[in-house]
UniProtKB/TrEMBL annotation:
It comes from the Bacteria. It comes from Parapedobacter luteus. Belongs to the ETF alpha-subunit/FixB family. The lineage of its organism: Bacteria, Pseudomonadati, Bacteroidota, Sphingobacteriia, Sphingobacteriales. InterPro entries: DHS-like_NAD/FAD-binding_dom, ETF_a/b_N, ETF_a/FixB, ETF_asu_C, Rossmann-like_a/b/a_fold. FAD binds at R211, G267, I268, S269, G270, A271, I272, Q273, H274, N288. Binds 1 FAD per dimer. One of its GO terms (biological process) is fatty acid beta-oxidation using acyl-CoA dehydrogenase. The keyword GTP-binding does not apply. This is Electron transfer flavoprotein alpha subunit. It holds the Pfam family ETF_alpha. GO terms for molecular function: electron transfer activity; flavin adenine dinucleotide binding. PANTHER family: ELECTRON TRANSFER FLAVOPROTEIN ALPHA, ELECTRON TRANSFER FLAVOPROTEIN SUBUNIT ALPHA, MITOCHONDRIAL. Residues 3-191 form the Electron transfer flavoprotein alpha/beta-subunit N-terminal domain.
Length: 323
């Protein structure tokens, strides 16, 4: 079994999730006694390409084409499927990112492969069968998917597997698969960046607040805490519905799913629809003045207290600790 990883980059710098995906593939390759090929698309430096070798890629296929400088779902799926065939790969790994969510099923369809999306840990390997633990029902449960087809695709949840450096230098190859006209039916004209902050689905730390904050004028202390921690900010649905925060910060069943190492929930009750979006978080800290708030049931650490007293003290302590 050879393994192909699609490595995502942003403006020529690999995302942390790309290194996680390569490390994940390398760990499977070590179990199955095979090797990892990575494929990436777009303008990127040779040294950046080489960095994938540090995480376990033996070969890096670089696809450079003006038509593909911006992400196009169909075209990128065709390129990754072509790369899988080129590398004789029977397992393809992508990150379960915004683009990966669209790519994984398309790649699987093109390869006639079985798909497990949202993997949270290494699969159990038994001969040709991979049993993949993954999130299900908007993150409310875990499921075990058995991949028994010859070709397989796994999308890996962000922050689910730690990137591990191995220190090798990969072979870098230019790869130029033909791009069909129908794959370019959708053209991305312009990308408008609405924030320079770390994107919420990829954040390692998320500071999230709810209606307990009383109003938008009180978000200064949430942003200060987030800045002190290098975190992204998020909120509950009623907060974005009320226009206190942008909808892009709304976490939950009807919003964004996050999988950070640390999720700090402040003044959020912990309704099932909110928990649906955060259950893949590694450590959950809840700050709520009501000791009976349902959120405490899923918390690793809880602080029963008034956010308006706790948050400034917590921020001051973090700043003092960081010097
Ligand atoms: P509240 O429920 O009002 O809770 C506020 C909390 O703040 C309380 O626990 C209170 O004790 C605490 N508090 C008050 N003052 C303080 C203080 N000074 N210090 C500390 N704590 C304080 N919700 C989502 O978030 N995401 C979703 O995707 C989502 N999808 C939904 C889909 C459907 C179909 C439906 C029906 C609902 C959905 N909801 C969603 C709404 C969800 O059911 C809850 O109503 C919502 O999550 C509650 O938001 P909240 O916790 O901010 O507010």
């Amino acid at each position: 079994m050879s393994i192909l990883v699609y490595a995502e980059h942003a403006d020529g710098t690999f995302k942390k999730s790309a290194y996680e995906a390569v490390s994940y593939a390398k760990a499977i390759a070590d179990i199955t006694n095979t090797w990892v090929t990575a494929v990436t698309i777009g303008d990127i430096s040779t040294s950046e390409l080489a960095s994938l070798g540090h995480y376990g890629a033996t070969t890096v296929l670089h696809v450079s084409s003006e038509q593909l400088n911006r992400f196009i779902n169909q075209a990128y799926a065709s390129v990754v499927a072509a790369a899988a065939n080129h590398a004789n790969a029977d397992l393809v790994i992508v990150s379960n990112s915004f683009s990966g969510k669209g790519l994984a099923p398309r790649i699987a369809a093109k390869l006639g492969a079985g798909l497990a999306d949202g993997a949270v840990e290494l699969p159990v390997v038994e001969g040709n069968k991979l049993t993949v633990k993954k999130t299900a029902f908007s993150g409310k449960a875990f499921a075990f998917t058995e991949l028994i087809s010859d070709k397989k695709v796994i999308s890996l949840n962000i922050n689910a597997f730690e990137a591990q450096e191995t220190g090798d230098t990969p072979q870098i190859e230019t790869f130029s698969p033909p791009i069909e006209e129908r794959d370019l039916a959708t053209i991305v004209e312009e990308i408008v960046r609405i924030t320079d902050k770390v994107s919420l689905p990829e954040a390692e730390i998320v500071v999230s607040a709810g209606r307990g904050l009383k109003g938008p004028e009180n978000w200064g202390m949430i942003e200060e805490l987030a800045d002190a921690l290098g975190a992204a900010t998020a909120c509950s649905k009623p907060v974005s519905d009320a226009g206190w925060r942008p909808h892009s910060e709304h976490v939950g069943q009807t919003g964004i799913t996050v999988s950070p190492n640390l999720y700090i929930a402040i003044g959020i009750s912990g309704a099932i629809q909110h928990l649906a979006g955060i259950s893949a978080s590694k450590t959950i800290v809840v700050i709520n003045k009501d000791p009976e708030a349902p959120f405490f049931k899923v918390a690793d650490y809880g602080v029963v207290g008034d956010a308006f007293e706790v948050i400034p003290k917590l921020t001051a302590a973090i700043k003092a600790y960081k010097g």
